[in-house]
Amino acid sequence: MNLRRVLWGALGAVVLVAVIGGTWIVSLPAAPSVAAPPAIAQDERDAMIAALKPPKRQRPLIAIIGINDATETTDYLMPYGILKRADVADVVTLATAPGPVTLFPTLKVEPQATVAEFDAQHPDGADYVIVPAMSRDDDPAALQWIRNQSGKGAIVIGVCAGAKVVGAAGLLHGKRATTHWYSIKELRGRDPTMRYVRDRRLVVDDRVTTTTGITASMPMSLTLIEAIAGRDKARAVGRDIGLVDWDARHQSDEFRFTRPFALTAIRNTAAFWAHERLGIELKPGMDEVALALVTDAWSRTYRSQAVTFARAAGAQQSRNGLRILPDEVATNWPAAQLLPAIDNAKPAEALDSALGGIAARYGTRTTDFVAMQLEYPRHRATQ
C-alpha distances in angstroms, 51 versus 47, 48, 282? Predict the structure, then answer.
């Protein structure tokens, strides 16, 4: 009798969880419609460029900070690669402590200095500090360093959920800001004085800048190049990376937690027997921006993890001098689990190609799921 009661109780609990879960899923909104983002007035655009002008040096110094454990892949690598490609500033990647930076959800790199080494070399501070999303928003070393740099006159740029780190450093009090769509409620709850701005991929308020989700660091980097070196230079770099037009326009309603998003996450996670490790060969001179975008996208399907391999142990130097550590040493990879070579693909085109590959392998729902995480406009993701 007692066993029967236990079994019936367990069954009842399962049914209750299923009912609650089903009710929650049904309550979620359907996939949002895709609409053209609202236009941005020229005076607003001009004010943004003016606010981003170099605050100290004619050739500015840009520092990208990360914590050693789980800093977001594209947030960390894309600004570095695009700004180095432009050659209009000195750009350095930093870590809060010695040793490699493990990026999330994929890749591992050797930072070019620690924050302590940077401070010793540049006691007057950086012109710009770029803050990616991090696995924790309250790292004491990162927060104190960001505060110190702001106090020395640096323009602080929070990329994606890096806005939460900027907020934790106390720099969003009373400011207009944005962040990754998934973190908006949390960011607003932490500081009620922060004023969230809809329909902008990039928000500049005094000496603090924030962006929407992960892929927004691409137009952010081009906007920063324009502020430093002019529109023509930014256009040239944009063509070089495969992004011929960009600005701060954004359709916020396009990005939200929806029923298809939740169902795709559940379905792909539940299909654990079909999860894959997909290899991409790490070669000297690879474009770090394209590599970041491709591996980031494939590692967000909830069906696959992108893994780098190299023919020899040790870091491989990227196109712009960043040392990337392979996950494995191997002379080859099974053809069925090998990602296409990036070669000389332009970064934006490499991402579009990766999303097309994801659709072919796992279906368009998974492509939409990945694009939503990357906060990548659907009109580009579905081209």
Answer: 6, 5, 39
Amino acid letter, 349 = E
Q: Which residue has the tokens 């654990």?
A: 272
Give DSSP secondary structure letters for 274-334: G-EEEEEE--TT--HHHHHHHHHHHTTSSSEEEEEEESSSS-EE-TTS-EEE-SEE-S---
Q: What is the pLDDT of residues 71-102, one digit of tens each?
A: 999 999 999 999 999 999 999 999 999 999 99
Please compute the mean of the pLDDT values over residues 260-273 and round it to a whole number: 95
Rounded distance between C-alpha atoms, residue 81 and residue 293, angstroms: 11
Grouping H, G, I as helix, E, B as strand and the rest as coil, residue 308 is strand
Taking the chain, what is the end-to-end CA distance rounded to the nearest angstrom? 62
Tokens 């079909």, residue?
274
Residue labelled with tokens 């900027």: 166
Q: Encoding tokens for residue 235?
A: 């256009």
Cβ atoms of 146 and 60 closer than 8 Å:
no
What is the token pair recorded at 357? 């590959």
Report the run of H or E that residue 210 belongs to, with start and end. strand 208-211
Do 138 and 39 form a contact (C-beta atoms < 8 A)?
A: no
Instruction: Say what the pTM is.
Output: 0.93
CA triple 157-235-58, angle to 5 deg: 55
The predicted pLDDT at position 24 comes to: 59
CA 379 to chain CA centroid, Å, is 19
Total residue length of the chain: 383
